[in-house]
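Collaboration report, partner site 2.

Our partner group contributed sequences for two proteins of shared interest, and the home lab folded both. The records are reproduced in the order in which they were received, starting with the first partner submission.
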Amino acid sequence: MAEINIQRKKSSPSPWLLIILALAVLGLIAYFFLRADNASAPDPAAAPATATSTPATDAEAESMARATPPPADGSGNAAVADMAAEEAPATPDELASFAANEAAAPDYGRRGLRMLSATLSDLADRADLRDAAVSEKRNDLTSAISRLDEPGANLKPGLVAATALMQAMQQKAYPDLEGPVGELADQARELSGRQTAADQAPLQSFFTKAAEVVRSFSQPAA
């Protein structure tokens, strides 16, 4: 008779035991993380005392400002001088009046160029004149004007830059002004750029014609 081998089936571990072990492991991990966070948190008592300091009063701020010495290189005075030297945009009538009546002034050329530059820069911001070419020429003019206060500065770069901006605006919106603006550009290139007595008459002629071109630019484009 055949012998039957009967083996007892091994029982699998209870799923509840596995769940309990997993929870225990997670609990240990959470404990170590929380402990590390608490160790790295700053102590409120150790905060610097400056955090609770009160802001300075107006009187204290004024006192500190008075106690601060001016820059040793005089840059503060230079900045004020630059601001004072800036010209506001002029009307065509103001430009024409200056050209006609101020020619005897020793700074006639520099002052006239600053007035013309400020006026042209203001016109260049107009929506119907604003484009890449006009913006580029305006930047060139601004750069040239910024060098007028340098020792021995010559007016010619600024005069040429001013007429270049005029030509850019003329090409943008005023085709009928090609002749007058072109003549003014030629005249700017012929000027010496100095401010001697012999240069006053050519400068006066230039500024007079420039005022007329500005008058035309002040009218709506066709």
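Second partner submission, folded after the first:
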Amino acid sequence: MDAHTIIVAATAIAVGIIFGAAGLGSAIGWGLITSKTIEGITRQPEMRPQLLVNTFIFAGLMESFPFIILAFGFWFLFANPFLG
């Protein structure tokens, strides 16, 4: 196998791992955001509207992370800087 094939194969494996980690991180983030919101609503029900607004703001910020990782992953796949 030549060096080009090895680099392409290693990049494909690495990008798959990166995509999996980004998905797992996003799922954990959603779980933490949701659990803390429910916990806050349980403690102070009158704060429900403010907590929900904050939840959706932080959830939107947290969801941007996998899309940024997706862009970097596709950059490594299709415009691989390691191939020269």
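Feedback sent to the partner group on the second submission included the following. Residues 3-43 form the longest helix (41 residues). The mean pLDDT is 91.
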